[in-house]
Amino acid sequence: MFDDWMQRYEYMIELGKSLPLIEEQYKTDDYKIKGCQSQVWVHADFQDGQVVFTADSDAIITKGIIALLVRSFSHQKPEDIIAADTQFIDEIGLKEHLSPTRANGLVSMIKQLKMYAIAYQAKANN
């Protein structure tokens, strides 16, 4: 879709601007993703059998990354999030164009979204 990485970064920045923002009450250490160079907060709600994510970050690229993940995983059933193949991240070459610390942060973000899904699935099964 984009010819070069500058265009992709610009698109990610635009995605970040459209991110469903987390409420201020969730911008605490309890909702902060560990392992990210920047501050990233994620909150999840369970609505009509689907997990709905909101998030924010203090860095524009990181905000774009979490926006991409929120778009991909939000409004999905927990089992679909858990089983989701994140191969698309490798296919678009995102990891290889991030610094090692940002790439680790990306992995941490995915893990956290999947952990929310696991928690909601367990809650639904009880």
Automatic annotation (TrEMBL):
Superkingdom of source: Bacteria
One Pfam family hit: SufE
Domain Fe-S metabolism associated: start-end pairs: 2-115
SUPFAM superfamilies associated with the record: SufE/NifU
Family, as annotated: Belongs to the SufE family.
UniProt-recorded name of the protein: SufE family protein
